[in-house]
Amino acid sequence: MKDNNNNSRRKFIKIAAAGSAAIGLVQVSNVFGSQISAEEQISYKEKKAPASRGKSVMGLRCEPLKTVRIGLIGLGMRGSGSLGRLLQVDGTEIIAIADVVPKAVKDANKQITDAGLKPAIEYTGDEDWKKICERDDIDLIYQCTPWLLHTTIAVYAMKHGKHAACEVPSAVTLDECWDLVNTAEETQRHFMMLENCCYDFFELNTLNMARNGVFGDIHYAEGAYIHDLRWLKFLKEGGYHDMWRLEFSKKHTGDPYPTHGLGPVAQIMGINRGDRFDYLSSISTNQFSMSLYAQEKFGVNSPEAIQAYKLGDMNTTIIHSLKGKTIMIQHDTSSPRPYSRIHRISGTKGMAVKYPEEQIALEPNAHEFLKKEDFEALMKKYEHPLATQMGEKAKKVGGHGGMDFIMDYRLIYCLRKGLPLDQDVYDAAAWCSIGPLSEKSVLSRGNSVDVPDFTRGAWENAAPWPIVTIE
Fold it and tell me: Which of 14, 171, 249, 437 is 20 to 30 Å from 255 by CA-CA measure?
């Protein structure tokens, strides 16, 4: 049974690759370098922004939806958790569910019926993601599939009149970033990358503080994804399907997963809304820890230990904005270190940092962090409205401490009210572009690389994202 499931998933990805070529996307097989080398993949020539096929979707408002009818594609670790949360969001209906593993679909439908709701229509075929996108009784395609399918499915969904949301990263090449932008503009449909870390409680509070001038003019920030995943990368059963993350580590360098640390600070600093990324420089250490781990776990002469891995243990990328501000983003999923996204913001009146401990320092005594009672008072004063209104329920529902539920609830709320989304397609493209651009910089000895303006100039007149709420 396990072999059949694996074969089915491999066929699913293969067919998705063919589908992506048909709708003008980069071939999925090329993303992992199975046909071309990593160096060839990132040696594209710099080019001007492609001509838009539609109008800007900056601040896009679409028709309000009384009930958001959802097609959920991908029911693995992330998908099953997403389903559980969406079932507890007001104004949703799960119309259809899909996964190439039939048991995952059956388990998901049991989750739905156990909640007292009618079962969803089930899809298990390799091409059934297309059938769900083509249905006329669905408003939103919500996908939790492997990275290589994100853009393919999202573009197909928007071309069939659906709003689209997908897990991070939403794109792994610059071509995919532009495909998302161009399709959203052409179809005037919403696209949101589900960057949950923008909704964590400390991140929300520091956003509120920033908008109220607590830190002054914020000119520097740090973010990261530091998470020891060696055991999970090498897990043959129950881990990443077909060990895709391990395969990526073999063939790519740079920062392949920048958005958890980048998204929250980019919103705070008004990226794409009053400022934008201009260029970046990126360097990586050599790879050490994967090989050492493999030697200790599988033996010094094992295939895992002999295998070469291109992904450096620690990558550091410095992004320079057009208005002279900088952001440092780090990625390390191979070293034995405690989890961290850093989340450090620094301004002319003070700073805040989340990891390893939430702390704030402000003028006139910024040489020291605030005392506990002063810190707690400040956090209470600037608690974000979403945390005030939804925090208690979010923590009960769960999803990384509640931030996933706040994200889902706010997405559905905006669709039901006809409001612009908190994260739009330009955010997804800009944040995800750091992946391929950082790889290009690393392979050119850290030389700077320009970051495209995915907004085509709309950033200049767009206001920074406000402090949003729910009624």
Answer: 14
Q: 95: closest CA among 130, 111, 116, 119?
A: 119
Count of beta carbons in the 10 Å neighbourhood of residue 423: 28
Taking alpha carbons only, the member of 80, 109, 79, 101 closest to residue 2 is 101
Phi and psi dihedrals of 56, rounded to 5? -60, 145
pTM, rounded to two decimals: 0.91
Q: How large is the C-alpha radius of gyration of the chain?
A: 22
- The model's confidence at residue 34, banded by pLDDT at 50, 70 and 90, is very low
- Give the pLDDT of residue 11: 54
Which position has the token pair 């402090």? 467
> pLDDT grade, residue 35 (50/70/90)?
very low
Q: For the purposes of burial, counting CB atoms within 10 Å of the CB of 145, is it exposed (0-12), middle (13-18) or buried (19 or more)?
A: buried
Q: Which alpha helices (DSSP H) does 71-192 contain, by range? A: 77-86, 102-114, 128-134, 150-159, 174-187
Q: Are 191 and 428 in contact (CB under 8 A)?
A: yes
Cite the beta strand spans of 13-67 per DSSP E: none
Q: Are 241 and 145 in contact (CB under 8 A)?
A: no
Peptide bond into 169 cis (omega under 30): yes
Phi, psi (degrees; rounded to nearest 5) at 310: -85, -25
- State how far the alpha carbon of 466 is from the alpha carbons of 41, 66, 372, 398, in Å: 38, 24, 28, 25
Name the token pair of 204: 């929300």
Query: How far is residue 159's CA from residue 161's CA, in Å, rounded to a whole number?
Result: 6
**Phi and psi of 306, rounded to 5°?**
-80, -30
CA 92, distance to chain mean position in Å, is: 22
pLDDT digits (tens, 9 = 90+) for 325-381: 999 999 999 999 999 999 999 999 999 999 999 999 999 999 999 999 999 999 999
- pLDDT of amino acid 186: 98
In the chain, the amino acid numbered 173 is T
Specify the pairing of strand 218-226 against strand 344-347: antiparallel
Q: Give the chain's end-to-end CA distance (angstroms, integer).
A: 48
Evaluate whether 71 touches 138 at the Cβ level (below 8 Å).
yes
CA of residue 433 relative to chain centroid, distance: 11
Residue 28's pLDDT is what? 37
Over the stretch 40-67, which tens digit does the pLDDT of each residue have? 343 334 557 888 889 999 999 999 999 9
Q: Which helix (H) or strand (E) holds 387?
A: helix 385-397
